[in-house]
Design goal:
It contains five helices and no strands. It has one domain. Helix 1 runs antiparallel to helix 3 and helix 3 runs antiparallel to helix 4. With 126 residues, it is an all-alpha fold.
Length: 126
């Protein structure tokens, strides 16, 4: 296994757990997610569950990509694009606190890591 393959697998594992766990929390305990993790705007239980219903399968597919990231390039690319747009959304809202700045930085790092994973496992041809 090359370093880029190991990197891609590690990124898929970490981000897969991240998205699956937050998605599951949003589905099972939407108010807890809103009040403790993302108290942005008015609480909307239905919308929080809707977002969770997309994050769980995304996380599951990223976890499946750990086995062979090359076969799941589209999933990793989709996750990178979605993560980048999510980070942009947070930056457009503006940084209101240190907590927001840390969250925005983390979202940006997730997008960058997924993009590197999607692009990084090109095999050398000899």
């Amino acid at each position: 296994m090359t370093r880029s393959q190991a990197f891609a697998r590690a990124v898929c594992l970490v981000t897969g757990v991240y998205y699956a766990a937050f998605g599951a929390l949003m589905l099972a305990r939407p108010h807890s997610f809103w009040s403790r993790i993302a108290p942005i705007g008015a609480f909307n239980e239905h919308y929080t569950r809707d977002v969770g219903s997309f994050l769980v399968p995304l996380g599951v597919f990223l976890l499946a990509a750990v086995s062979d990231p090359r076969r799941f390039r589209a999933v990793v690319g989709l996750a990178a694009g979605g993560s980048a747009l999510h980070a942009v959304s947070h930056f457009l809202d503006g940084m209101r606190s240190t907590r927001n700045a840390i969250s925005d930085l983390a979202l940006s790092m997730i997008a960058v890591l997924l993009l590197l994973a999607a692009l990084g496992w090109r095999e050398r041809r000899q």
